[in-house]
Design a protein that fits this description.
Blueprint: E1 4-6, H1 10-20, H2 26-44, E2 50-56, E3 61-67, E4 71-77, H3 81-90, E5 95-96, E6 98-103, E7 110-116, E8 125-129, E9 132-133, H4 137-148, E10 153-157, E11 160-161, H5 163-172, E12 177-180, E13 182-183, E14 186-187, E15 193-194, H6 200-205
Parallel strand pairs: 1-12, 4-5, 4-6, 4-8, 8-10, 9-11, 10-12, 11-13
Antiparallel strand pairs: 2-3, 6-7, 14-15
Helix pairs in contact: 1-2, 2-3
The structure holds 1-O-pyrophosphono-5-O-phosphono-alpha-D-ribofuranose and uracil (URA).
């Protein structure tokens, strides 16, 4: 799948195992999710453009760099919130918008309930955060909304994705790169990722 980058290393594989384990409690779940988010932001940042600047060390002037474009983080509520802290620590000047989407349990279609995004989406690198890419309905709707508001350069960061969701993203938004830490087998009959980790929002916030 051309639009997909799977970020894998031994620490990520260990942390995905912690997330998958049904016995993992919210506290450890959130920490593992945060550690994987650091790995994702590192990989995603390889696409950032830099401006060269001069920097004065205590000894002399040398070359340095700053990120060329503004960066906007867009967590998809609720579960995407859990990825924000790692991303904002690594990109402290990022602005943060929010999109509230909830899958209708029967139709599996996303229902929107909240939107608030910063200005200047058109000149920003926009990183959508959502741990689960299942049918792809929520992520695709979030990116369509951002494009309607002017976003031109969007990336999707997730933890676990299903082939169905990656395919939908490639069809609806072929230019959007998807970064994930696991590419799972399939969806079950009610739209959950297999083997997956269950409901990311409920497991993060303890609302099971
Ligand atoms: C989850 C997840 C995604 C969506 C993925 O959210 O965080 O947003 O499902 O499914 P899809 O690819 O089939 O659209 P959910 O609707 O459970 O809301 P929540 O984060 O509030 O729990
Ligand atoms: N949303 C989740 O939280 N988990 C899934 O497996 C699918 C959608």
């Amino acid at each position: 799948m051309e639009n997909l980058t799977v970020v894998e290393n031994p620490l990520v594989l260990r942390d995905i195992t912690i997330l998958r384990n049904k016995l993992t409690e919210e506290y450890d779940f959130r920490l593992a999710l945060k550690r994987i988010s650091y790995a994702l932001v590192n990989e995603i940042s390889k696409d950032f453009l830099l401006d060269e600047i001069e920097v004065e060390t205590p000894l002399e002037t040398t070359n340095g760099y700053k990120i060329k474009h503004p960066i906007v983080l867009i967590p998809v509520l609720r579960a995407g919130l859990s990825m924000v802290s790692a991303f904002i620590e690594m990109i402290p000047h990022a602005k943060v918008g929010h999109i509230g989407l909830q899958r209708d349990e029967e139709t599996l279609k996303p229902v929107d309930y909240y939107y608030k995004t910063p200005k200047n989406l058109d000149v920003s690198k926009v990183i959508v955060l959502d741990p689960m890419l299942a049918t792809g309905g929520s992520a695709s709707a979030a990116i369509s909304f951002l494009k309607e508001r002017g976003a031109k350069d969007c990336i999707l960061a997730c933890l676990i994705c299903a082939p169905e969701g990656v395919k939908k993203m490639a069809e609806d938004h072929p230019k959007v790169k998807v970064f994930t830490s696991a590419f799972d087998r399939e969806l079950n009959s009610v739209g959950y990722i297999l083997p997956g980790l269950g409901d990311a929002g409920d497991r993060t916030f303890g609302t099971l």
